[in-house]
Amino acid sequence: MRPSLLLYASTLTTLTTSLAIEKRHQKAWPSAIRAFYSAAYSTLSQLPPQTLNTITSSTCNIASPSMPTIPDLPPVTPGYSLYHVAIGRGTQNYTCNPTDPTAVPMAAGATATLYNTTCISTLAPLALAQLPASALLIPTPQGPSAQLFPARALVSGQHYFTAAAPTFNLHTATHNYGIQFGAVLAKVAVPEKLQAGQTGQDGSKPVPWLKLSSADASNGLPADASPVKEVYRVNTAGGSAPKTCEGMEKTFEVQYAAEYWFWG
Fold first, then answer.
1. Which residues, 6+ apart, have CB-to-CB distance to 155 below 8 Å?
2. What is the DSSP code string of 94-148?
3. Which residue in 1, 78, 98, 193 has its CB near the most CB atoms, within 10 A?
4. Who contacts 200 (Cβ-Cβ below 8 Å, separation ≥6)?
């Protein structure tokens, strides 16, 4: 039986209290964080007070999700339904030839912590859209009980590479959504008009949006161990390497954040 998607009370607490935070504290915060609370405020202020006090997991209707899309990124396979939504916060990793400053940096995988934002994606999708840029403004939260500010989203897994395969380990001490090994099906550069506000503090542009498929024996990757069949990396912020290796170390990391949508 497919595990239920967790609804974290702390996340909803943050969203509901944003009604007060909107008025008291926003002016002192960076624009991306202000945008998150403004979007949450705009959504939740339209709900009756009694609704705010009785939000439960049943409120998070993921039957009609609204995942960001851009031209040339293939749609979700018909028949698949949304399984999980997370914000990934970590680094894109690269290597350089130290003897050739004109060389182009080579991608060497990525590592990121995944934070559960499934309910935010349905209750306040405009707020979700602000989270990748917001997440780059603060250090990566540490520890299994860490929360991603400003959404206070809790850890739902880890993203890393296994034998060159993108891996999404959705297994923590509190839940087990499985492990998904992926292969990139499509990569689309972020259109210029969508790059505004998505640049890292180091000036890095947003990494491309991706569609990944579940791995199987036919492509030489580990067998899939999760109901997830497709993963989308969208609404990216930061993470791109500089154009050349000039001034770069042999190996280096670039901070990034992104929305990850899991389907199966």
1. 113, 114, 115, 116, 144, 145, 146, 172
2. EE--TT-TTSPPEEEEEEEEEEE-HHHHHH-HHHHTTHHHHHTTSPPP-STT-EE
3. 98
4. 136, 237, 238, 239, 254, 255, 256
Q: Which residues contact 143 (CB under 8 A, 6 or more apart)?
A: none
Q: How far apart are CA 74 and CA 26, in angstroms?
A: 38
pLDDT tens readout for residues 51-86 = 545 454 445 667 777 899 888 999 999 999 999 999
Token output for 152: 């206070």
Q: What is the pLDDT of residues 199-236, one digit of tens each?
A: 998 999 999 999 999 866 555 555 556 788 999 999 99
**Closest C-alpha to 121, from 196, 188, 63, 50:** 63
Mean pLDDT computed over 150-155: 82
